[in-house]
Amino acid sequence: MGHFRKQMVSVLLTTRCNMDCVYCITSSNFMNGGDINITFAKQGIKDYFDKAWYPYLRFVALGEPTQNFETLQKLHAYARKCSSGRVKFELQTNGVFNKKIAQWIANNIDEVWISFDGLPEVHDELKRMENNKPTASIILGNLKILQEKTFAGFRATITSLNVRRQKEIVQFAHQQGIKAVFTKVVLPPSNPTLHHTFYKVAQSLQVGMMEYANDFVNAWKLSRELDVFYGNGYINNFDEMCEYACRACLPCPHLTPDGYVSACDRATHGKTPLQEFIYGKYNSVKGVIVYDKEKIAALQSRSVYNMPDCSDCSIKYYCAGGCLGTSSQLAGSMFKITPDYCEAIKYMFENIDWDPRGGLFPYFMT
Ligand code: SF4
Ligand code: SF4
Ligand code: SF4
């Protein structure tokens, strides 16, 4: 289904993280801040549920959401109450928590997406704890607990270490009983900070989009045989004609730890360089969220009809201009395109065997 159909309120619970990943896109361990104001979060959830087609709450973070687990549980109870039990819950997590938390998540969250870089040895190279402890075995242990009661999928970042091992990623996921894996090519930090570890290794980690796309197509073929859905944010509109690339165009709210409302996962705090996505701010004195109508109108105007570089593209209704966050980050505006991404997107459209008339993708990217 067109990715814009995945609509929800996302709560970024904290800036804190228990890991120290080399490429951390949010720069969580360099950010001051802390935990979200729970009164703001409740207000943002209520504002969204009052207007939404259906109540859907997604727990995320600038760091790791389970680091603010008490607030997560309180907001879970609040959302249940104010939706009369109809709410659906999703969690995007690094998967590093204790067994008690794993059991609570298994019992109370409908859909869990774990950041896992596809293969244990690749994951442990780049995603360790602050004390340098590896994390793959902890995550795979928690995965078993989650799978007893709920859905869990992988979100993998693709670097030079795994770009040519995408078939192995699908194979490993299959062995673990995982039914869906979404990947993304590594990006520079969206919250740039001077001493970020990424900059020291950027050249050795980065991969070209066509290099990624070539191996993706091979892995896709295997994924069809193994019945593992192998997707990404570049193909996620291929199964339905649409004019909007993402929920960010509606927009759907992402409540940041410092009290702002963002349209996009890539804009994670009020002072983000990606200001075009910040469309609301909490007024703690009045206890209300003030929404910026001009910013909302600009976001709503981001359809494929309003993207000059897409006008002659042969697949424009199956891409809809692509990810706004990536355009904003790499090209400087959500209305611009990134040509190397376009080349890869078109290649994937031509070379994967999904017939858009034959059915919708079984999973939404988180
Ligand atoms: S788990 Fe996520 S937020 Fe934490 S350091 Fe790694 S990439 Fe950053
Ligand atoms: S990063 Fe891209 S896919 Fe994710 S919310 Fe932003 S625009 Fe949508
Ligand atoms: S030009 Fe690029 S961004 Fe625009 S629709 Fe085509 S592939 Fe997508």
Q: What is the fold's blueprint, element by element?
A:
Layout: E1 9-12, H1 38-51, E2 56-60, H2 69-82, E3 88-93, H3 99-108, E4 111-115, H4 120-126, H5 136-147, E5 151-158, H6 166-175, E6 180-185, H7 197-205, H8 209-226, E7 229-232, E8 254-255, E9 260-262, E10 278-283, E11 288-291, H9 293-300, H10 324-331, H11 339-351
Parallel strand pairs: 1-2, 1-8, 2-3, 3-4, 4-5, 5-6, 6-7
Antiparallel strand pairs: 8-9, 9-10, 10-11
Helix pairs in contact: 1-2, 3-5, 6-8, 8-11
Bound molecules: iron/sulfur cluster (3 copies).
One iron/sulfur cluster binds next to loops.
Plain-language structure description:
The chain has helices at 38-51, 69-82, 99-108, 120-126, 136-147, 166-175, 197-205, 209-226, 293-300, 324-331, 339-351; strands at 9-12, 56-60, 88-93, 111-115, 151-158, 180-185, 229-232, 254-255, 260-262, 278-283, 288-291. The chain has 366 residues and is an alpha/beta fold. It has a domain at 3-232: Aldolase class I (TIM Barrel, Alpha-Beta Barrel). Helix 3 (99-108) runs parallel beside helix 5 (136-147) and helix 8 runs parallel beside helix 11. The chain is globular, with a radius of gyration of 19 Å. Residues 233, 246, 248, 264-266, 323-325 line the site of one iron/sulfur cluster (SF4).
